[in-house]
Amino acid sequence: MDELKNTLDTIKAIDWDSASVSFFVVKRKLIQRSAKYDIFHVNVDEPLRKKLRGITSGKIKKSNVAIEYDFNTVDLDDNLLGLPTADTDLQAILQTLQDDEDPPTVDQYEALLGSWLYIARLDIKDQPPLFSARRVSEGWTTKKVMQLINMVFQNNMLVDLGEQEIFRIDGKVDFFTYDGFIFIADKKNFETALNFREGMERNRDEIVKEFSSLGLFENATAISDLVGNNLRHLRRLSQVKKAGYYKDPNFLANLRKVSEEDGWGIQYSHEGKLLVTEDDIETVLRVLNNDRLTSKINAENFDVDVKHKLGAGG
After folding, report:
1. Helix (H, G, I), strand (E, B), or coil: what is residue 123?
2. Contact by Cβ (8 Å): 238, 203
3. In this predicted structure, what is the pLDDT of residue 159?
4. InterPro entries, per this entry (predicted)?
């Protein structure tokens, strides 16, 4: 995606070491599987601002490639996964952070306990703000962890205290967002922090309705039952929805033809609708996402979990 590359190039060209820094914590409540987020501003001292600035700047400097987010993709070392901010729960959080009215400021120690996520906002004159986020794995505690920045809350402000163990910010970034795009460094933490599993469950329900309206399956509701809350199936079904091959009649006709020629065992009703069972749900989801491929070099066949489309002539 050219927009991802261009946006990352823009981010890397900016001197974030000179940015002003604001700090926020986010708390989360789950209500019927939907997340509600409360955002609070936290005053921080200059040494801590410097460290937060350095953590974000360092991650940006090490990251040179952004690949479009795929539900099945694993983390990619220092490369990033990217997708539009509007596709995630982060959009609502950013709206609060950029409202004319500032979030309430933390004025007591207890208000920091149980935080779900912390966010550093970096501002450079005449540039959109950059927001750098890290999930708090167990809420803030005093348990000792390697390579941590430790803080205490004094005079309504978080203060860096070197080796003392009060609150903990480690030297990592889970994801950052700039000008409409999220760049993900830790996929697992990103998905947990922003309730992405709920999004995949919504995808499941939406695509089953699409399957029904298209008449693609003999019994589309069986997909919902077979996928259930299985995370692997949810990921694959969400990727099927994102790719959209199932909307292409030519793709579906070729799928049936190749399945019969190569003996894939995919079953169809007398009316030509797909049949799916517990035994073949994995295969059906895989082929609907075009994840059964043949090498152009030696004609070997492969089932792949992640693929990256080559450009024209690739």
Report:
1. strand
2. yes
3. 58
4. KwaB-like
Q: Are residues 23 and 119 in the same domain?
A: yes
- The β-bridge relationship of strands 80-84 and 66-68 is parallel
Are 179 and 140 contained in the same domain?
Answer: yes
What's the distance, CA 299 to chain centroid? Answer: 34
For the chain, what is the domain count?
A: 2
Whether residues 181 and 282 fall in one domain: no
**Per the domain annotation, does 176 fall within a domain?**
yes
Query: Are 185 and 265 part of one and the same domain?
Result: no
Handedness of CA 2, 10, 147, 97 (dihedral sign): negative
Q: Which of 120, 6, 117 is nearest to 54 (CA)?
A: 120
Residue 311's pLDDT band, with cuts at 50, 70 and 90, is low
**pLDDT digit string (tens) for 95-142?**
999 988 889 998 876 777 778 899 999 999 999 999 999 998 664 553
Return d(Cα 298, Cα 54) in angstroms, integer: 48
Write the pLDDT tens digit of every residue in 179-230.
Answer: 999 999 999 899 888 888 888 888 899 999 999 999 999 999 999 999 998 9
Which range marks the domain in which residue 233 is found? 198-303
Distances (CA, A) of 258 to 20, 218, 225, 252, 293: 58, 20, 27, 10, 12
Q: Which of 243, 238, 163, 252 is nearest to 206 (CA)?
A: 238
Do 305 and 72 form a contact (C-beta atoms < 8 A)? yes
